[in-house]
Amino acid sequence: MSTRLASGGRLIDRKTTQKFTFNGTWLSGFSGDTLASALLANDQMLVGRSFKYHRPRGILASGPEEPNALVNLGRDDRLEPNQRTTTTPLFDGLQATSQNHWPSLEFDIGVVNNYAARFLPAGFYYKTFIHPRAAWKHLFEPVIRKSAGLGRAPKDRDADRYEQAYAFCDVLVVGGGIAGLQAALSAGRRGDRVILLEQAAHWGGRAPVDGDAVGGMAAGDWLTAALEELHALPNVTLRAACTATGVYDHGYVLAAESLADATPGDGRPRQRLWRIRAGRIVTATGAIERPLSFAGNDIPGVMLAAAMRDYVVNHAVSPGDRTVIVTNNDDAYRTALVLRDAGLAVPVILDARPAPAGPLVEAARARGIRIEAGRAIAKVQGGKRVTGVQICLQAGEGAVLEEISCDAVAMSGGWSPVVHLWSHCGGKLNWDDRLSAFLPDPARPPLNHDGRAMVTPAGAAAGIFEPDAILTSGEVAGADPDSLGEVQDELLARQSVVVPPVWVMPQGARADLRAKMWLDFQNDVKVSDVQLAAREGYESVEHTKRYTTLGMATDQGKLSNINGLAVLAQALGEDIPQVGTTTFRPPYTPVTLGTLAGEARGEIFQPLRRTPVHGWHESHGAYFEPVGLWRRPYCYPRSGESHADAVKREVLNTRAGLGLLDASTLGKIIVKGPDAGRFLDMLYTNMMSTLPVGKCRYGLMCNEQGFLSDDGVVARLDEDTWLCHTTSGGADRIHGWMEDWLQCEWWDWKVYTANLTEHYAQIAVVGPKARALLEKLGGMDVSKEALPFMAWSEGSLAGIPARAFRISFSGELSYEIAVPASQGLAFWEACLAAGAEFGISPYGTEALHVMRAEKGFIMIGDETDGTVTPLDLGLAWAVSKKKADFLGKRGMERNHLSSPDRWQLVGFETLDGSVIPDGAYILAEGSNDNGQRNVQGRVTSTYYSPTLKHGIAMGLLHHGPSRMGEVVEFNKTDGGTVKARVADPVFYDKTGEKQNV
Amino acid sequence: MLTLTCPCCGVTAEETELAPGYEAHLKRFGPGSTDAEFESYMFARKNPKGVHFERWRHAYGCGKWFLAARCTATLEVFGTYPAQTTEPPAAILDAIRARRPDWKA
Predict the structure, then answer these.
(1) Sorted alphabetically, which Pfam families does this protein's record hold (chain B) (predicted)?
(2) A576: burial class by Cβ within 10 Å (0-12, 13-18, 19+)?
(3) Reduced to 3 states, what is the DSSP secondary structure of residue A288?
(4) Euclidean distance between CA atoms A727 and A864, whole angstroms
(5) What are A130-148's pLDDT values in tens digits?
(6) A820, A932, B48, B68: least surrounded by Cβ within 10 Å?
(7) Dist CA A81 CA A99 (whole Å)
(8) How far apart are CA A416 and CA A463, in angstroms?
(9) Residue A883 domain-assigned (yes or no)
(10) Which chain B residues are within 8 Å of A747, Cβ to Cβ?
(11) Is B64 on the interface with A (CB under 8 A)?
(12) Do the beta carbons of residue A518 and residue A549 sit within 8 Å?
């Protein structure tokens, strides 16, 4: 069993007890524990079930590489799934539950998958797609959906808040072990601005646990001195509990800092995302121990050797009373020594090497520990806990020589340098035969904007494992990165660490053993799965990864990748470097979505644009809709009134009397200069240079492909100034479009533009009584003679300076009044007060849409979708035939666009008066090769017309204008169809009398 | 996330401040051009692995367009220069050749 030792524990404080629950049971640990160490102290080795076979799983590691011991942490609005117990600091009141089992962790029905494992081979998921077809839908999918997956996504809104911050430095050092501390010291001493990040809450990496002398001092003393000096350097910033998760272009690094994870609800942000721009980056990210592939290597009680000594030294937790050590390198002997020092039994060290030697081996031998060379584990015995191991020859096929009872196994397959951050931006790797590992190639680093190396690896991350060599490597990485390649080669050549390859244990293992050797513990991928993939023809490591799901779990293969690709290389008969690695992508460890979102949630998810009248709309019960970043009133429902009824009332009231629309969102761009007319003639499809001062003209803009892009009314303010109105959503885009042409193509033209959209409030006064209202407000002549249709004039109304445009998007007598934004609300309220006697009522965007559709006016984004030309919409009158050139003219001349054989705009009236559904297609005879019904057009705008009291629509129909009166069929969402007669798109006031009075 | 220096205002800006405008030095073909010419202008974009000339706008800064020469594979930036030019200036070409001796314009 696993238990707390009576003494020791470098990181725990035995005076501070912390109570927590696991699956509802109260347990206790100490301050300084991780959740994993506290669970082990309570003999809770079984903590989860595996993804696919629901096998019992225990704690395997002691750091972020942990694949098994994931839990649901917290509950309700603080629930977070898939949290690694090994990196979760224990706190009083912590609540954890295990995942992926039913009905309970101890008794899980899903474990039947384990016994059916031979029917769930590599790629079984894809194989279920093939045949029979019906089986996927009715059999496989429901079963797979129910049994797969780890934690459940939280349902409640996250109660915590998160923040983001920026930081800048010359040198960013990632990793607070000996190499990282030394790199920070050497860069800091030179005066560089240094940021040093460490993912754990404490400094020093492995050195304090492994107890080697560093720089002639005890590791602990060296650490104290280094930290003291770093804290005293004003140009060095240290951040513990802060994980650098990704390296991006030009020295950009994201790091997630834990702030209140262990004190939920204390008022601080839970986590902070650092967005760091570094001159260069030192990755002193250490190395991760590799598991060995022997049968039953996933049974709870089998742990990584270094993790086991972490628990003993850091937390005074013994994972087992009798631990068998199995290894292919010297490092695991440290675990044997630590266990023996703690008074625990080590019955045997199984060393796969034929003749282990060296100081650590001798030390173990001197302590009387039995060492068996050339031996391997044939099979681990036990179910929910290790009960013993069967020993065999590494060189053989697994014939059992001896059985030894034990309750834990410590394994070490060597170390994989953490090369993730080096690789994120393209750093290349070399295979090192002595270490059996991929190392960063200093000759092929990721590059910065200036072509210099952006990342420098140091210490174990560069394959350097001996303390004094690590110091040298850190020193050089911090101060003199250009000479690093040379120094590293020398350090690597000098070090005595050798890790012979042991990819499968025993090397000739029988099939039944290989089917129980786990490579990827989290995604349940075994040696036999990778070998099957190779037999089925998967040669690329990237394809094998996706087919078998090796390395695709939340741990992203930190333990499994090297072992997996080594097995693949063996199966393919190739060398490991030829097979290569899969791509290392950020994040290094999972980052919670809240941290990435930061403060961008709720009201401030994105900027919100409000018109000067927005407050009035809100206080008068407007129902809003988003239009770009704007919020516009859709309608103003009265108490008890549905939105549809409100829209009807607003339309009828405007057509019969007087309506008021807040049109302030309309884009307003000033184009000014001696060449402004010439410029607008290029921008618009029609002529703008000939527009007289004081007049307005409707204009269309196309992109260079000839497709309609925006529309609006242009007013000529004076000899060299035009005011271009754009659509509400298009103002910024069109202003950018103008600037693009002026800056990049016609930079010799004398034209200036200014986007004045927010400088003015624009209020549309609409309806037969519009003139009467403005006359009552008084201040300027708004008569038909002084201000005819499509003219504008300047003056004042109700004492407010105003520009009045006689333009109409409703077909009624209409004035759009622009006033300074600061007086927009005052003007709006003056209109409402004075308009009471005329029955004035505000209307929203939906009434605007209905009225423009009744008039057959197009709307950018409804009638257009980036594939529609002005000619398709019957707007040939607005496309100049005289102009030699304008943007889109050449595009429109392309044969497909100029062909008469296109879908063209017409109106539709349903025979039964109903409203055609949005997005409906017009059906044609027959069906296409995919068995889909042929179509001959589609609806673009469809509304109930309160004025005409039946459904009206506009749409594009093949040869539409030549088919007036024909009856066509639209499909409906309920599977039926609706018949409609092709009609003129102008349904209301075809001659335009009403707007021209 | 790239950083580029705006040659107009001198600010070294992050990509979040910039808007991309794709390939630089395109020649516009308008009415009267052949289909092949128009296609070359409208659709035929270079997509090299290596040296590339691009348009960028300092959209959330000074608002000016500028051009950048950079390597699409290593993300090295050889230089930025004003948009008011029809071909890369000599200094930019020199900077490219200094790092990519085999590169051909």
Answers:
(1) SoxD
(2) buried
(3) strand
(4) 13
(5) 666 677 667 666 666 666 6
(6) A932
(7) 8
(8) 8
(9) no
(10) 83-84
(11) yes
(12) no
Q: Cβ–Cβ contacts within 10 Å for residue A311, how many?
A: 27
Query: Is the CB of residue A623 less than 8 Å away from at least one CB of chain B?
Result: no
Stretch A875-893: mean pLDDT: 96
In a domain, A866, yes or no: no
pLDDT value at position A395?
Answer: 97
CA atoms within 13 A on the CB side of A897: 20
**A317 with A323: CB under 8 angstroms?**
no
In a domain, A964, yes or no: yes
Structure tokens at A699: 């204009």
Instruction: Report the distance separating Cα A363 and Cα A350, nearest Å.
Output: 16
Beta bridge partners of A303: A410
Q: Is A974 on the interface with B (CB under 8 A)?
A: no
- Do A782 and A649 share a structural domain? yes
CA distance A639 to A637: 7
Query: Are A964 and A977 in the same domain?
Result: yes
Domain limits for position A46: 3-128
**For residue A693, what is the domain's CATH number?**
3.30.70.1400
Contact A143, A135 (CB under 8 A): no
Interface-testing mutation among B5, B65, B66, B80, with chain A (most A C-beta atoms within 10 A): B65
Do A266 and A201 belong to one domain?
A: yes
- Residue that has been written with the tokens 């196994």 in this structure: A409
Q: In degrees rounded to 5, what are phi and psi of residue A171?
A: -130, 125
Q: How many CB atoms lie within 10 A of CB A570?
A: 20
Closest-approach residue (CA) in chain B for A250? B2
pLDDT of amino acid A582: 87
Whether A128 shows a pLDDT value over 70: the answer reads no
Strands A402-405 and A386-393: antiparallel
* Nearest CA-CA distance, residue A893 and chain B, Å: 8
Question: What whole-number distance in Å separates Cα of residue A931 and Cα of residue B50?
Answer: 45
Please return the burial class of A548, using the count of CB atoms within 10 Å of its CB with bins 0-12, 13-18 and 19+. buried
Bridge partners, A752 (sequence order)? A672
Whether residues A793 and A833 fall in one domain:
yes
The chain-wide mean pLDDT, for chain A, equals 94
CB A588 within 8 A of CB A286: no
Amino acid, res. B83: A
Number of domains in chain A: 7
Q: Which of A451, A704, A743 sits opposite B76 (nearest CB)?
A: A451
Tell me whether residues A450 and B77 touch, CB distance under 8 A.
yes
Percent of chain A with pLDDT over 70: 97
Distance CA A930, CA A686 (A): 42
- For residues A404 and A493, state if they share a domain: no
Of A475, A499, A523, the position where a domain reaches its end is A499
Do B2 and A705 make contact, defined as CB atoms within 8 angstroms? no
B92 SS3 class: helix
Q: Assess contact for A290 and A397: CB atoms under 8 A.
A: no
**Contact with chain A for residue B21, Cβ under 8 A:** yes
ipTM of the complex: 0.97
Contacts of A740 in chain B (CB under 8 A): 21, 57, 65
The number of angstroms, rounded, from the C-alpha of A705 to the middle of its chain's C-alpha atoms is: 33
Contact A676, A718 (CB under 8 A): no
Tell me the backbone φ, ψ of residue A820, rounded to 5 degrees: -55, 140
Both A969 and A927 in one domain: the answer is yes
pLDDT band at A258; cut points 50, 70, 90: very high
Global pTM value: 0.91
Q: Is the pLDDT of residue A857 over 90?
A: yes
Query: Under DSSP, is residue A483 helix (H, G, I), strand (E, B) or coil?
Result: helix
Chain-chain contact of A449 with B19 (C-beta, under 8 angstroms): no
From A360, A389, A413, the end of a domain falls on A413
Give B65's contacts in chain A (Cβ within 8 Å). 739-740, 743-744
